[in-house]
């Protein structure tokens, strides 16, 4: 059976609103801030698989070095994965979206 090969643990991304998960510290309130944007701004949204090993400031620095959002996603995901594997036997979910505002 397929399930016997899955690692045991809490699937946090699927547990929002789950009472048991809330007792473990899972929250459904995103971190965000409000700011004025210009046509050169980009935004980064990512799971804890990204931000457990990359600070907000470093994520911006990595994205700024890339030529487009797709490249920025690859760079952020690759950096997070490399750091997870150096730290643990497996990586958490690594999800990132980078968007750019067009004029």
User: For this structure, what is the CATH class?
Assistant: Alpha Beta
CATH superfamily: PPM-type phosphatase domain
Number of strands: 2
Our estimate of the beta-strand percent is: 5-15%
Helix-strand pattern: HEHHHE
Reported CATH architecture: 4-Layer Sandwich
Number of individual domains:
1
Average pLDDT rating: 79
- Give the class from helix and strand content and strand pairing: alpha+beta
How many DSSP H or I helices? Answer: 4
Strand order of the largest sheet: 1-2
Shape: flat
Most strands sheet: 2 strands, antiparallel
Question: Helix proportion of residues, in percent?
Answer: 25-40%
- How far apart, in Å, are the first and last alpha carbons? 52 Å
Low-confidence stretches: 1-10
| CATH fold title | Phosphatase 2c, domain 1
List the helices and strands and how they pair.
Elements: H1 19-23, E1 42-46, H2 48-51, H3 56-64, H4 69-87, E2 96-100
Antiparallel strand pairs: 1-2
Report what the structure shows:
The chain has one domain: PPM-type phosphatase domain (Phosphatase 2c, domain 1, 4-Layer Sandwich), CATH 3.60.40.10. The protein is α+β, with helices and mostly antiparallel strands and 103 residues long. The N terminus is likely disordered. The longest helix has 19 residues. Strands 1-2 form a two-stranded antiparallel ribbon. The protein is built from four helices and two strands; from the N terminus they run H-E-H-H-H-E. Helix 3 crosses helix 4.
């Amino acid at each position: 059976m397929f399930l016997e090969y899955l690692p045991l643990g809490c699937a946090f991304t699927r547990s929002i609103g789950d009472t048991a998960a809330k007792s473990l510290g899972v929250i459904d309130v995103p971190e965000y801030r409000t700011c004025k944007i210009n046509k050169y701004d980009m935004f980064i949204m990512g799971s804890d698989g990204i931000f457990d090993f990359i600070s907000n400031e470093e994520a911006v620095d990595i994205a700024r070095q890339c030529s487009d959002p797709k490249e920025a996603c690859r760079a952020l995901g690759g950096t997070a994965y490399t750091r997870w594997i150096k730290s643990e036997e497996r990586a958490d979910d690594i999800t990132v979206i980078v968007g750019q505002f067009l004029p």
